[in-house]
Amino acid sequence: MNWFNPYYRCTRLVTLTLSLIVLLAVLIGGGQPALAHRPHHVVTEVQISPRFSEDETLFIVVRNNLYKSIDAGNSWQRLVDGLDSQNLSGLALSQQNRERLYLSTRGDGVYRSTDGGLSWTQQVNGLGSRDLEAIAVSPNNDNLILVAGHDGGLYRSDNGGDQWQSVWMENQRITSLSFTPDNPQVIFVGTAEGEVHRSDDAGTTWVRSSQLDETGAITAIAPSTNFSQDNQLWLGTETAGVFSSSDGGNQFTAINSDLPDLQITDLLALAPDGGQPQLLLSTWDAGFFRSDDGGQTWNPAQGELAKDVQADELEEPHFYGLATSPAALAEGYVFMGGFDSLYRSEDGGQQWQQLETLSPDVVMAFDISPNYAQDQTLALGTYVNGIYLTKDGGQSWQRPSRGLHLPWFTNNFEQQYQDPRRYFHVAFSPNYGNDQTLFVSILWTKLLRSTDGGVSWQVVDLPSETRGVTLLVSPNFAEDETVYVAGQYGTFFRSTDGGRNFQTVADIGAPGGNDAPSFVASPNFIEDGILLATGPGGIFQSSDRAETWTRLTSDPAWETRRNLQIAISPNYAADGTIFVGTDAGVFWSTDAGASWQPLAGLGDFADDYIEAIAVSPEFEGDRTLVVSIRGQGLWRSVDGGQSFDQIGDSKLLFSKLDRIPSAGMAIQFSPNYGEDNTLYAMGDPNTALYRSRDQGLTWETLRVRDLELADPSLVEQGQIYLKVYRGRILRVGLAAVLGLVSYGVLSWFTRRRTLPIPRAVIPVVGTVVIFSSSLVILFK
Fold first, then answer.
1. Which residue in 729, 131, 636, 661 sits closest to 444, CA to CA?
2. Where along the chain do the CATH 2.130.10.10 domains lie?
3. Distances in whole angstroms, Cα of residue 46 to Cα of each of 68, 146, 496
4. Hey, what long-range contacts does 100-107 have (CB within 8 A, 24 or more apart)?
């Protein structure tokens, strides 16, 4: 065989190249993108209907949102009508009337519902403080209620909350409340100092019955279901586990055998069969335990309950309160709130499953095409479940996938602690009709850019890490190709090449709270170059393309205002009008921010929490302004804010989800509002938008069908692999080049020499040695 024949030389070269490719494939591996964990849902309160066996109804407080389920937690409704409180702290249900509920709040007193949570009224007469914590209602009389003050004190009502009286003058903070099931006169409270107090006259007077030392706060009290006969009582404590008493609360004994976690978050005593009470226990870190012998032994749940490491980082409990009833427990139902989720057991607490509460499909932001009159296009971003587009005003939707698979964001195929695709803001190019460009941001440091109407997307990294990526596309984008980005911590970025690359241009400091920055441009931006943004202490203005900023709000009261949302008059150049919605009402300026006044036209709601605000694009002529007020529905002004009338359905809340930051504008006018009278809004707990075609008087819900993210095509799979493994590919390629060069050199060197071995062996062996050595060095 002639080894120097061109045919054989070519064959050897091809064989060597194929071998290198095989080795490259081995080095790269064959991983596929892994599904990522969703963000945590903090369920701090859970209560079930007294007739759960019939109606499967339960209520939860999740990230400060009140939700109701009528199918045992499989689906949810958000409850808002009348709930204008900023912070929910406690929830209690009547055991006689499933329609009656009570809520305690941090700063707004007590709220009562008599229609199963659909609507609420504030009950504050006689309350010495509206800053409240634990609340409990008598199991024998749903007009008898106790609620504890955050900084101390206890208030009692015997008429369903219509009137309250103080029954606890001490400054000790009460951390747990419990009525005895079979004696309406006997009530227990526990304090932050480990004291137990007892009332024998339905809460009118109190006597300290016991003091536990070195236990921390009393976190739960569970009297026996047969307390009048057996005088048994169990306590959960902050740091020392569970204690029992058999003399009505005078003496207590620790019963912590088999308990690996002594930080108790809740404790229930129930007797489904009327016999010995079963004890159900939740703890800070270890989860659920059950005792069938009065606490002498404790049995954990089977299998490990899912937890989120962020709970440890924030020093929050992994597991919160329990909810069941004798009838529900007899059927096996127990619910438990947690930092990561709501948990449900259908076998008495042995096995648990996580329930979806805040849907990953909920709309976090949307935008309307500036060319809406012609293209009927909208785009929306969900919590963690993708981007959707419609080209028929919301009747049908598509979910793009190109460029949106996980490795494009993570640069690897590894399992992620949390899915980074938490969509935060959506913005169309003002020239969308021609350039088909739109942008979507995610919570951290990245944004997405599409130049083909949302069919495909490119991930763009910002130059430094930031949270809360709010977008602003220049009104003159067709000419200047400028895109601005504001971060939650006060950093501003700018791109002058259509969003391909960004530079840091300014930093005004981080405001308090967890709100996304609001960021708008003057309608006359091409001439005046004015940008407005929220920041520490209120509203800031820039006149030099975001490079320097001046604070417009000097009043110190702006330091504590939250949820700031800017709405600017389309006729700003002439009228200088700016509206700002806050957690303390709407403020406005008619001199371009030089001075500010409360918007008195809201009357009784002038200092209420504003969920959303929007100005008509025809404001100069129609003077229309709409605001969504927490718990009070949607209000419209047609005289520039001098007066307002309620419109729409008060049970619909047009807002972003509370405690989940996003930069979305919850209410938006159609750009063609003067002709089509159309508005869109978000706020539904599922994937949906609201639409009104009669200036906001009535609304319809546009459901978005859940569509799976399509698998990447073969071409995109190749692109993904090239992106993820480009470093390895370059190193292997360099090693291959070195190997091939060595093959050529050694082949030439041995061509005319007489050797004791076949000439072909030396180039091949040399190539393998050079290639392998290069790999070792390059991958070291």
1. 661
2. 363-409+421-703
3. 10, 18, 50
4. 100/142, 100/160, 101/47, 101/59, 102/135, 102/137, 102/145, 102/147, 102/161, 103/66, 103/135, 104/132, 104/133, 104/134, 104/135, 104/147, 105/130, 105/132, 106/131, 106/132, 106/133, 106/150, 107/131
Measured CA distances, 766 to 24, 535, 763, 769, 776 (Å): 19, 65, 5, 5, 15
Distance CA 355, CA 347 (A): 16
- CATH number belonging to the domain at 363-409+421-703, selected among 3.30.830.10, 2.40.50.140, 3.40.50.300, 2.130.10.10: 2.130.10.10
Please tell me the total number of residues recorded for the chain in this structure: 780
Answer with the residue of higher pLDDT: 551 or 40: 551
**H-type alpha helices, 542-680:** 572-575, 619-622, 673-676
299: exposed, middle or buried (C-beta count within 10 Å: 0-12, 13-18, 19+)?
Answer: middle
Task: Name the residue among 702, 172, 770, 710 with its Cα closest to residue 402.
Answer: 710
Q: What is the pLDDT of residues 72-112, one digit of tens each?
A: 999 999 999 999 988 999 999 999 999 999 999 999 999 99
In order of 34, 386, 414, the CA distances from 410 in angstroms are 11, 16, 8
* Cβ count within 10 A of residue 771: 23
Work out the burial of residue 677: count CB atoms within 10 Å of its CB; fewer than 13 is exposed, 13-18 middle, 19 or more buried: middle
Pick the more confident residue, 771 or 147.
147
Arch. (CATH architecture) of 79-171: Beta Barrel (2.40)
Counting Cα atoms < 13 Å in the Cβ hemisphere of 99 gives 4
pTM score, two decimals?
0.88
How many Å apart are CA 476 and CA 102, to the nearest integer? 52
**Do residues 439 and 471 touch, judged by C-beta distance below 8 A?**
yes
By DSSP bridging, strand 154-157 and strand 145-149 are antiparallel
- 233 DSSP β-pair partners: 223, 245
Smallest CA-to-CA distance from 527 within 473, 476, 569, 593 is with 476
CA–CA–CA angle 461, 467, 473 (5° rounding): 60
What's the token pair of residue 755? 């050797």
**Alpha carbon distance 177, 55 (integer Å):** 27
CATH 2.40.10.500-classified regions of the chain = 79-171
E-assigned strands of 590-714? Answer: 597-598, 610-615, 625-629, 633-637, 645-647, 667-669, 679-681, 688-692, 700-703
Q: Which of 312, 317, 300 is nearest to 352 (CA)?
A: 300
Q: What pLDDT shows up at residue 355?
A: 95
Residue pLDDT, tens place only, 567-606: 999 999 999 999 999 999 999 999 999 999 999 999 999 9
Q: State mean pLDDT over 124-139.
A: 97
| Pairwise CA distance, residues 646 & 441, whole Å | 33
